[in-house]
Amino acid sequence: MQKKYLIVGGVAGGASAAARLRRLGEDDQIIMFEKGPDVSFSNCCLPYHLSGKIKNAQDLILMDPDKFRGQYNIDARVNNEVLSIDRSQKEVEVKNLLSGEIYKESYDKLILSPGAKAIIPAIPGIEKANIFTIKNVVDIDKLNKFINKTKPSRITVIGGGFIGIEVMENLVEAGHKVSLIESLPQVLNQFDYEMVQILHKEIIDNGVELVVGDKVTAFDTDKVILQSGKEIISEVIVMSIGIVPETAIAKQAGLEIGKTGALKVDPNFLTNDPDIYAVGDAIEVYNTLTQDHFTLPLAGPALKQARSVADHIHGRTIQNTGYIGSSVVKIFNYNAASTGLNEKTLADLNIDYEWVEIIPKDKVGIMPDAEELNFKLIFEKPTGRVLGAQAIGRGNVDKRADVIATAIKFGATIEHLRDLELCYAPPFGTGKDAINYAGYVASNLLHGSFKQISMSKVRELVEQNAYILDVREMDEYEAGHIHNAVIIPLSELRDRYKEVPEDVPVYIHCRSGQRSYNAVLALQAKGYTQVYNVSGGFLGICAYEYFTDKTEARKPIVTDYNLE
Ligand code: FAD
Questions:
Q1: Residue 469 has pLDDT above 90, yes or no
Q2: Are 376 and 195 in contact (CB under 8 A)?
Q3: Cα separation of 20 and 7, whole Å?
Q4: Which residue from 21, 170, 208, 221 has the least number of CB within 10 angstroms?
Q5: Rounded CA gap, 558 and 214, in Å?
Q6: Distance CA 69, CA 20 (A)
């Protein structure tokens, strides 16, 4: 028997659900309502129109209503807003935004994929500023045209999440002067503070005025005023401080809202109404690691949830194994990927954890395009269960985060990482991949083979005049070293170890952490008990210190930075 399916929202989740429903039921009636003028556009590619990487705004649109009709027999109604849901009658009220006509449409099943809306806070003077948000093709086209017409002296992006970062990058690539304001002490909050410093450096190195830990308190004509008193002359403002789930019609219809403020759904993405499903940015999902609900406004989950809903409607079993949150972003010459939990999240949870930070090469070191890979692995103690990873570098980082994402989904431990068989040839990686290597370090740490401290603690150690041992070679030391560090190269340490005091803690570093680990083991073998490996080595320390040194005119703890 023919069924009638209505879908609210015609982009990621909505279009995906519609297409899958058609594939599973040739004769069913499928109507997709979209209040905007376009369906099925690539939200994720919107920022790339600003740099001209995607030249025509129209190229952002992947499918139009004619194609939906022709290829799928789907009735995609653009400029049609669903105003309300009448659950008892199983119908929705719709307004044709062009004609003003209001009409009703009945359903057997209703799928909500209305997304989320950008937050625009009520900051004093906001009416005086040229504020833009980016949610769809109309928005990006409007912003791009405005910029090209008015040629602003500076554009300020407010919010250092991944959309703000992508907008910033594309504006810079288009030749604009850009300021980026973030109220937290760091951009990209999915990363831990020490990891993100390398990105802070990349942002300022590309000429962006990056302000962190400060927030906008007022706008004036062509001016942004920050809490610190700092004023930024800027004729265009892009607001990307976050989103809120679009729940108005669902709330009005009595559908249950979860504690995050997003729609509550069961593992089959059913709301508390057995005929209404919801997916995408509008819902909250279950985090298998925190065992709690959270919102995960990303395209991948929305698309897959939509497909699952169509499957469920057609009686297929779906396996919702929960979510962990995986994402990747490009920042000028760097790529940054993360998955699972970070330390900030873990600090609020009752989970005992440990971390390793390593900086291996992403390919065989002698290959011309080999790059440093800043890799952080987080795991549970004492089980070794993998909880999260962050990978930042100029090369391939998403492979590493993806492998860890898969490992987490399958409940892997750090011991599993040691033996993972990953693809290798010199242009792609190393025989022991960063993932295997992180598994070894984590395993050694968990078994108590050595102790470590974070690169973020080194400044404190320098201030306390602690004993810091540099085991790099002399030429490396001379090119830049920590003030007060003692130099004994690893190649000489076994002959000179008696110079190292036994009665104080010894903090050992090399360039990236590997030689210092060997030095730690060598000293331990000689009876030293208070030896610590500085994770990330001199590379990590320099990357961690650089941004704050430069932006706060702080006295460096190093004679010179080594960042390559
Ligand atoms: P959307 O795709 O936003 O679709 C919802 C649609 O519903 C909207 O078009 C809206 O107009 C319509 N609608 C709402 N209410 C009604 C109503 N009452 N009647 C009719 N229509 C209605 N995710 C990633 O994973 N990777 C990325 O790189 C990435 N980059 C992004 C870049 C930008 C600039 C943006 C804005 C988002 C990005 N995202 C990215 C997030 C991703 O696009 C969203 O998570 C995804 O689109 C959510 O899908 P959805 O179907 O829930 O909502």
A1: yes
A2: yes
A3: 12
A4: 221
A5: 27
A6: 14
**C-alpha of residue 11 to centroid of ligand 1, in Å:** 6
Q: 10 Å Cβ neighbour count for 355?
A: 22
| Structure token pair of residue 179 | 């300021």
Contact predicate 110/95, CB 8 Å: no
Site to substitute for ligand 1 among 6, 298, 327, 328, most atoms within 8 A of C-beta: 298
Q: What is the pLDDT of residue 348?
A: 86
The per-residue b/e assignment along 471-484, b for 16 or more CB within 10 angstroms, e otherwise, is bbbeebbeebbbee
pLDDT in tens, 116-171: 999 999 999 999 999 999 999 999 999 999 999 999 999 999 999 999 999 999 99
Q: What is the mean pLDDT of residues 300-305?
A: 98
Contact 393, 424 (CB under 8 A): no
Please list, residue by residue across 516-537, b when 16 or more beta carbons sit within 10 angstroms of its beta carbon and e when fewer do: bbebbebbeeeebeebbbbbbb
CB of 29 closer than 8 Å to CB of 77: no
Residue 2 neighbours by CB under 8 Å, 6+ apart: 27, 28, 29
Closest ligand 1 atom number to CA of residue 115: 53
Helix, strand or coil for residue 387? strand
How far is the C-alpha of 460 from the C-alpha of 84, rounded, in Å?
A: 59
- The pLDDT > 90 percentage for the chain reads 98
pLDDT at 291 over 90: yes
Identify the DSSP state of 270.
Answer: B
* pLDDT mean across residues, the chain: 97
User: Is 90 exceeded by the pLDDT of residue 319?
Assistant: no
